[in-house]
Specification:
272 residues; alpha/beta; TIM Barrel; eight-stranded parallel β-sheet; two-stranded antiparallel sheet; 11 helices
Length: 272
């Protein structure tokens, strides 16, 4: 489906309404978990074909494509191009550098690979983000409160009386001059997510950690949705990609069933 929206946020919101979904499916191919006899290309393309009407975004992680740079990056570019026009693609790359390096990263992500959004590490400050932020039609999701167990090692450190992740949230508001800044906020930390939503009522949140990382859907959704009941991309990767088939069920049908079940669970949490 061709979209008329010109920015990542507008495309995401169109897809969210059309598919009644805040689900973002992570496209992270693990060669050890692929169905027997199925290539990585066939696997990923089939997942997209089977779930495109159930999601609001796809999120390939570049790390799973980089080990084989020649074929992997070609596959990643082809995968992004394969996603229907009506569904945006957020590349999980966690880039963060300065000067010409940041410029090169931005060209690679947006121009060479064709992603609509990217995850970034804000540790180096505003100038390291500017090559991405000046692209008003694209979106930058800054690491804020990540979903991993060690997140607090740095993110909980106090800066002027506030934990560092809150400082990142305040800065994200300042840097959102073009309306294209979002935050990565782990579903595994709903209390912190609620606080970040207070600070950033209008930003999009990418919420990893549902499923394999044991984030609880209802708590995360209710903590982080915005005033309109949206504003979040709830990401699931392994729980959808490698959903165990029921007896006689094809693997791709199991993935679709898992995606539909999670989408509906997110919607039930929004309604409460």
């Amino acid at each position: 489906m061709t979209t008329t929206a010109s920015t990542f946020r507008a495309r995401f919101e169109e897809a969210a309404v059309r598919n009644d979904s805040l689900l973002c499916v992570g496209l992270d191919p693990d060669p050890t978990k692929l169905p027997a006899g199925v290539s990585t290309r066939e696997f990923l393309f089939s997942i997209v074909d089977a779930t495109a009407d159930l999601v609001s975004c796809y999120k390939p992680n570049i790390a799973f494509f980089e080990p084989d740079l020649a074929e992997g990056i070609t596959l990643l570019r082809d995968l992004i191009a394969h996603v229907p026009d009506g569904v945006p693609v957020l590349l999980d790359a966690k880039r963060g550098d300065i000067g010409h390096t940041a410029e090169a990263y931005a060209r690679a992500v947006f121009d060479s690979l064709g992603a609509d959004a990217v995850t970034l590490n804000p540790y180096l400050g505003r100038d390291s983000l500017e090559p991405f932020l000046r692209r008003g039609d694209r979106h930058a999701f800054l690491l804020c409160r990540t979903s991993n167990a060690g997140a607090g090692d740095l993110q909980d450190l106090e800066v002027e009386g506030h934990p560092l992740y809150e400082r990142v949230a305040y800065l994200a508001n300042e840097w959102n001059e073009r309306g294209n800044v979002g935050l990565v906020v782990g579903a595994t930390y709903p209390e912190e997510a609620a606080r970040i939503r207070e600070i950033c009522p209008d930003l999009l949140f990418l919420m990893p950690g549902v499923g394999a990382q044991a984030g609880e859907v209802q708590a995360a959704v209710q903590a982080a949705t915005d005033a309109r009941g949206g504003g979040i991309l709830v990401n699931a990767s392994r729980g959808v990609l490698y959903a165990p088939p029921a007896e006689g069920e094809r693997w791709v049908d199991a993935s679709r069933r898992a995606a539909e079940s999670l989408r509906d669970e997110i919607n039930r949490a929004r309604a409460r």
